[in-house]
Amino acid sequence: MKTRNKTKNTKVALKPPLQALLVAPDWIMRKKILTGEKRITIREGHRDYRLGQVMISCHLMPFAVMAEIIEVRHCKLKEVTKEEWKNDGFTSQEDLLEGLRKFYPSINLDSPVTVIKWGKISGFLADSVQSKKLPFRALFEAYAKLAHWVGLELGFESR
Question: Rounded to two decimals, what is the model's pTM?
Fold first, then answer.
């Protein structure tokens, strides 16, 4: 562990900071994260993510789960493997490029990217959905009611 001088003669051990991965307010993607179907993300640029705890959250809609980063790989977008882009929900390299351009308009196949993989997720939402104590449908309806109450448009209809 890194240390920092507290005083001239005393050193304090520092814990690593909490890492966070922000996700878009996309219901399908967040459902896949909650059910464990999605355990990978591809981000533009070489990011300084480290193995260990990460909070996966959305700053636009209430959503947060904890996970353990199990692999971080830096490469060019064209070097992302078929297995990686398929696991991230894309059907082809062209689909991957098109999908990433929604967030990174200038990305191209020679752009540097970071591939981040995580293991099992945990936390109230994840545990509730995975144990079937709170089905995703009930969570979806609760979000819809909350959004209506605060006057937000979610981009989907509650049925």
Answer: 0.77
